[in-house]
Write a structure and sequence with these properties.
Structural class of chain A: alpha+beta
Distance between the termini of chain B: 28 Å
Distance between the termini of chain A: 31 Å
Largest interface: A-B, 70 and 83 residues
Oligomer: heterodimer
Number of helices of chain A: 6
Low-confidence stretches of chain A: none
Shape of chain A: elongated
Order of helices and strands of chain A: HHHHHEEEEEEEEEEEH
Radius of gyration of chain B: 18 Å
Number of helices of chain B: 9
Order of helices and strands of chain B: HHHHHHHHH
Mean pLDDT of chain A: 87
Largest sheet of chain A: 6 strands, antiparallel
Largest sheet of chain B: none
Strand order of the largest sheet of chain A: 1-2-3-10-5-8
Low-confidence stretches of chain B: none
Number of strands of chain B: 0
Mean pLDDT of chain B: 90
Strand content of chain B: under 5%
């Protein structure tokens, strides 16, 4: 598997520095699970973080801080239960698996249009995180967005004017782009999407439906 | 080996000693070095003095508890502690989850060349990185620092600097390219 579409490095920086919110972090980290190249880039940004931290002006701690920490070193620690391994081989990588479970097929999909189903996951501020399932050959209605849109392919693939996207590929579409992605015709296409403003559909009826569903 | 590299190697060794031998003396030295820097980091990010103090202590406790996981072939002590402080801040101040990969996940696509990447120490890289960061233009330095210390999305950084969003992004990409070329890593 070769990933050809990566997040822009500014998003890897946002993730590694800790500036990205949970929505962007989830889609970037799920891409990282599938992309050793971007994992290495994130390690490099973290190394830059280490240098910046080391070179920061130290701020003296309150008197007694060291003593207090030393006295707590042997406190028992409540262990977090280890992440459960999937019952069957799963193609949903962590961290996404912690949010949606082992199986894309088992998600409680909500149909919105012919061949198209959504599953909203969560919102953080203006960001909405959702899963999208497109039937083979189905188009996701032509839309524009006021904000940025990120799409990570989890299974199957789709194409639009900018290229062909397969498992692990991440597309970021900026506000100006009008696009009309079409799922590959050899199977369902599952993707994770983050939008930071509601989509604007060219088709009024779909737009209304999407609005009602809070997409 | 220059002095900065020597000191980075020393910090790595101390952290290894904490992980392997529960060395309290080593812990104390690391505390004296890193705790005030972590407090400085949290203050830069807008935490109040008393919260920054508490969280810096928390970070040191986390360091003690997780030190056995530290691998100097993968990251320097400073880098490792930066990630501890970063995650603690997201958890305690922003109250959000920090989605991260699980290296043992069977669904994870493994690194292509594990041995080529594994070096004895990342400490030498730190000196090269510091050089690369110093060589950035003032405009690039500004956006990189805001990424680490402002906790703001690119659009807000752009607004505050009075720049188009695309300019902020391209400055970050250029900064990254310079850092990577210094590390001899071409994507």
């Amino acid at each position: 598997m070769t990933i050809t579409h990566h997040p822009g490095e500014e998003f890897l920086i946002a993730y590694a520095s800790g500036a990205a919110d949970e929505a962007l972090s989830l889609i970037v980290a799920t891409h990282l699970a599938l992309c050793p190249t971007c994992r290495r880039a994130v390690r490099e940004v973290e190394a830059a973080g280490g240098v910046l931290l080391n070179d920061l002006k130290p701020a003296e701690l309150s008197g007694g801080a060291l003593k207090s920490v030393l006295s707590r070193l042997e406190e028992p620690v409540a262990r977090k239960p280890a992440a459960e391994n999937p019952r069957a081989p799963s193609n949903v990588p962590e961290p996404l698996r912690s949010y949606i479970g082992d199986s894309l097929q088992a998600v409680s999909w909500i149909p919105v249009a012919f061949g198209l189903a959504y599953k909203p996951l969560f919102r953080r501020g203006a960001s909405r995180v959702q899963l999208v399932r497109s039937a083979p050959g189905a188009g996701i209605a032509m839309h524009t967005h006021r904000g940025e849109e990120f799409t990570l392919v989890l299974e199957g693939g789709y194409s639009d004017a900018t290229g062909h996207y397969l498992r692990g590929d991440l597309q970021s579409a900026s506000p100006a782009i009008v696009h009309h992605p079409v799922a590959d015709d050899d199977g369902y296409c599952f993707s994770l999407a983050v939008v930071d403003a509601p989509l604007t559909f060219r088709n009024g009826a779909i737009g209304l439906l999407a609005k009602l569903m809070g997409l | 080996m220059d002095q900065e590299t020597a000191s980075a190697v020393r910090l790595d060794e101390l952290l290894v000693a904490v992980g392997r031998m529960r060395d309290r003396q080593a812990f104390q030295t690391l505390f004296e070095h890193f705790a005030p820097r972590i407090k400085g980091y949290l203050l830069r990010l807008g935490a109040g003095a008393s919260l920054a103090d508490d969280l810096a202590q928390e970070a040191m406790l986390t360091m003690w508890r997780k030190a056995a996981l530290f691998d100097p072939g993968k990251a320097s002590a400073a880098t490792w502690i930066f990630t501890v402080a970063r995650n603690l801040r997201i958890d305690a101040i922003r109250r959000e989850r920090r989605p991260e990969i699980n290296p043992d996940d069977p669904a994870l696509v493994p690194d292509d060349e594990p041995s080529a990447d594994a070096r004895l120490s990342q400490a030498g890289d730190e000196a090269r990185l510091r050089e690369a960061l110093k060589a950035l233009s003032p405009e690039q330095t500004k956006v990189v620092e805001m990424s680490f210390f402002a906790d703001k999305p690119h659009s807000t950084i752009a607004k505050e600097l009075g720049l188009p969003l695309g300019t902020v992004k391209s400055r970050l990409r250029l900064a990254m390219a310079r850092i990577r070329s210094k590390l001899g890593d071409v994507r």
